[in-house]
Amino acid sequence: MILEGQYQNCEDLKIGIVVSRFNSQITEMLLNGALDCLKRHGVKNTEIIKVPGSMEIGFVLKKLVNLDYDALIALGAIIRGETYHFEVVSNEISKAVMQLNLEGKVPISFGVVTADTLEQAINRAGAKMGNKGFEAAMVALEMANINRKINSIKST
Fold it and tell me: Which EC number(s) does UniProt give (predicted)?
């Protein structure tokens, strides 16, 4: 048996999006990309939770991961500055999302852009390199459908 996610039958999915307000120029572009993807695939039930920064995304995801969602999407933008803060935030949000993916009942897709410059971040939010928010939403849809298929397998 081969299980693979699909992008059909998404109308009844419930998707939660946790998005950082920090670097809002970028995160709003990511959010718009994600919402565009979900709309194109017929998703009608989407909830958006805005948090102050990327470090706060993990807290909210932990609260949501075992609730009544089919998938969650984490969106943020971390741009390198002059201090070590970039590495700390980037590493910790990545670890948090991975840990919650391993422990929670629904998948979380990672749409947190990490970039050295504002220009790189803009490019990843829809300018030159596609929209990572749109891509994260595609991953969420596929993983939600895979999760449903796995949950429907009866043990023998």
Answer: 2.5.1.78
How many structural domains are present in the chain?
A: 1
Q: Which residues are annotated as a binding site?
A: 22, 54-56, 77-79, 82-83, 110, 124
pLDDT surpassing 60 at residue 78: yes
Secondary structure tally for the chain: helices H, strands E: 5, 4
Q: What integer pLDDT is reported at residue 85 of this predicted model? A: 80
**Is 156 contained in some domain?**
no
**Which residues fall in the annotated binding site for (2S)-2-hydroxy-3-oxobutyl phosphate?**
82-83, 124
pLDDT-above-90 percentage for the chain:
74
CATH of the domain at 102: 3.40.50.960
Active site residues: 85
